[in-house]
Structures are given as structure tokens and as C-alpha cells.
Amino acid sequence: MRIANLAGRLVLVTATGAVDVEEASQGRFGPDPTAVYRDWRDFTAWAASAGLPAGEPLDETLLGAPVPEPGQIFAIGLNYREHATESGLDFPVEPPVFTKFRTSITGPYGDLALPGDTVDWEAELVVVIGREARQVAAADAWEYVAGLTVGQDYSERTRQLVPPAPQFSLGKSFPGFAPIGPVVVTPDELPDPGNLEIGCSIDGEQVQKARTGDLIFSVPVLIERLSAVLPLQPGDLIFTGTPSGVGGGRNPKRFLVAGEEVVTWIEGIGQLRQRCVPGTPYTTAS
């Protein structure tokens, strides 16, 4: 099953196009793309048994974030060994966790306003939680996953690493710094949801390529470790970390400039596309 947000309404993307969920279910499920995860079991049972009508042509320019209002956003650092190496840091023994604030969430396509001259890219697999998870064992964790989507963890490195204490969450939460989409894909749609090709290119030049099977902490382990501390709620997002190839890990360092197009993809899910444009510089301490 492939789920999307089309002009603010929940749709299923089928071979024939986009099926409006509220209309097809005769009001049983509403149009809110986020609310459906709180009723995930009933929704998936309905979608599997319903005789869905033919879809309407899908206008991709109208796609928004498939989960526009997550309750919690967890982001994991240093979750690929080569990325930890390029960052000059040891491999973590526990997942390093921060957040991206909700107002940074945006849809899969559009402009990325650059608030500074050290904005970096980080292609990421994003997990969408489908039922409350408390003290979940890794062996059972996929049962709590509604689906997977593509994400970018854009980062203003100067703001992120301001001394004396780095401010990861602020440096990664400027408007538009968390595009996700274009759809949420349920794990059963993917031959191996734990091992997908992921990559990123800038103006056609490939800058990142890896497989999610290379994660230090896999999706099930992340759910186990996070749910041991606090409950994960339906519709929560987990940005699982980025592979090597980020601009800050290069010599010389490379950051995004206005006019460049960033394309991020994950096998079996789809791609994001952002065009970099000048943004409003943020205020710094004088």
C-alpha cells in the first residue's frame, strides 16, 4: 500500500491513480493524512478488503508531506560506519538521538531556502510508527511500523555546531529542512524493507549511495532502544541516519548554493526534489 497527501487529503496511490480515502470509505476514514495512523489496524483491514474505485490522475505537484503533523520526530546520528568515520567520530554504542522540530516538515518537492552558507544534505530512510510501542523487542518491531518514506535531514552546520554546546535540533529545523515523501510505503510492498538502496545527487552528480542494510542500528533495534525509554505513538517519525558523502565530511568541505537541485531517493519508495534558493539569514549573537 502506498499512502500520500494530495493537496491536504489522504489518498491511496494505486496503479490507476490517486484514490481519495474519505470518499472511497464513505466517510469511515477522514481526509487527515496524519490521523489515519491512530486508526491504523482498521484502516489497513479496510484497504485490503475494499473494492477500491479507479484512481484519478495523480498530480505530483500537489503532493504534500505524507505525515504533515507527527507528534514526535526522532533523528539518529552516526548510524552508518562510513559516515561516523568521515565525521571523525567513534562508532556509537547507543543510538545518538536528537529531534527535528515539526515546523521543519515539508513535502517532497519545492524550494529549499538557504539561511546560511553552510547548509548540508543528509539522505535518510524515515520510519512511520503505526501503533503505540512500549518496551518493544527488536524481534517484534516491524509489527509497529506503518510504513517507510524518504527524508532529508538538511543541516545548517554553523548553527548546528555553535560552541560551547552544539545545537543539533535548532541547526536542523529551519523551515523546509525536513522534506519527506513522496509516499509512505507499507513494508509488505518492499521485497526487503531492511535493505534498500538510498542515495542523493546534486545537479545530477551522485554524492551519496548506500544500502539501509548497512545501518549500525537497524530499524527494529532503533524501535527497541527508543521504546525502552518512552512510548512511540502512531504517526511518529524516525529519521534513521545518513550514509557517508555529506558536504561537511569532504575535503574541502562543500555546501549547498542557490540554484542547485538536490534529488534524494530510496529504492521502492520514490524521490524528493528540492531547488536551493536564497533564504533569510538567521540572527546570531554579536
From TrEMBL:
<keyword id="KW-0378">Hydrolase</keyword>
<dbReference type="InterPro" id="IPR036663">
    <property type="entry name" value="Fumarylacetoacetase_C_sf"/>
</dbReference>
<dbReference type="InterPro" id="IPR011234">
    <property type="entry name" value="Fumarylacetoacetase-like_C"/>
</dbReference>
<dbReference type="GO" id="GO:0019752">
    <property type="term" value="P:carboxylic acid metabolic process"/>
</dbReference>
<comment type="similarity">
    <text>Belongs to the FAH family.</text>
</comment>
<protein>
    <submittedName>
        <fullName>FAA hydrolase family protein</fullName>
    </submittedName>
</protein>
<dbReference type="GO" id="GO:0016853">
    <property type="term" value="F:isomerase activity"/>
</dbReference>
<dbReference type="Pfam" id="PF01557">
    <property type="entry name" value="FAA_hydrolase"/>
</dbReference>
<dbReference type="InterPro" id="IPR051121">
    <property type="entry name" value="FAH"/>
</dbReference>
<dbReference type="GO" id="GO:0046872">
    <property type="term" value="F:metal ion binding"/>
</dbReference>
<keyword id="KW-0479">Metal-binding</keyword>
<dbReference type="GO" id="GO:0016787">
    <property type="term" value="F:hydrolase activity"/>
</dbReference>
<feature type="domain" description="Fumarylacetoacetase-like C-terminal">
    <location>
        <begin position="73"/>
        <end position="275"/>
    </location>
</feature>
